């Protein structure tokens, strides 16, 4: 008879369990602010810029141009993101945070910080550092660049 490993022997099982809990809690919090996690990530990626071409934003976030376009449409409808024509190319446009969008990013960032503190505050500072460094190392060595949005 073949021996089958138990689910709980897999590191991925534990990572997914914690990731799901953290993600679901954060999703509930940002939903209270009228946005999704994907919309928050989009807005945060734009926050440090005056404006950005959708293709550059797609590259920065590791997403397709189509996904960026859909997020931009939703955020434009919510009046959190605006579009401006590219002065050099009338067919192209640039994305920017509106005044309301720019004001909302720090509120959402505070929710992200609070969620991190809630979940990872049970670790010692040393444990937290080791966990963060290990996850970053895994992402770098595996070439994972896509911003997690779901």
Structure in words:
The protein is mostly helical. The protein has helices at residues 11-31, 37-47, 54-61, 65-77, 99-120, 125-142, and strands at residues 81-85, 93-97. It has a two-stranded antiparallel sheet. The longest helix has 22 residues, at 99-120.
Describe how the helices and strands are arranged:
Elements: H1 11-31, H2 37-47, H3 54-61, H4 65-77, E1 81-85, E2 93-97, H5 99-120, H6 125-142
Antiparallel strand pairs: 1-2
Helix pairs in contact: 1-5, 2-5, 3-4
Number of strands: 2
Any low-confidence stretches, pLDDT <50, length ≥5? none
The rough form would be described as elongated
Largest sheet: 2 strands, antiparallel
Separation of termini? Answer: 39 Å
Radius of gyration (CA) equals 18 Å
Could you give the order of strands across the largest sheet? 1-2
Tally of contiguous helical segments:
6
Helix content: 55-70%
Percentage beta strand: 5-15%
Strand/helix succession = HHHHEEHH
How would you summarize what this structure contains?
This protein has 150 residues and is mainly α. It is 62% helix and 7% strand.
Using brief descriptors, characterize the structure shown:
single chain, 150 residues, mainly alpha, two-stranded antiparallel ribbon, 7% strand
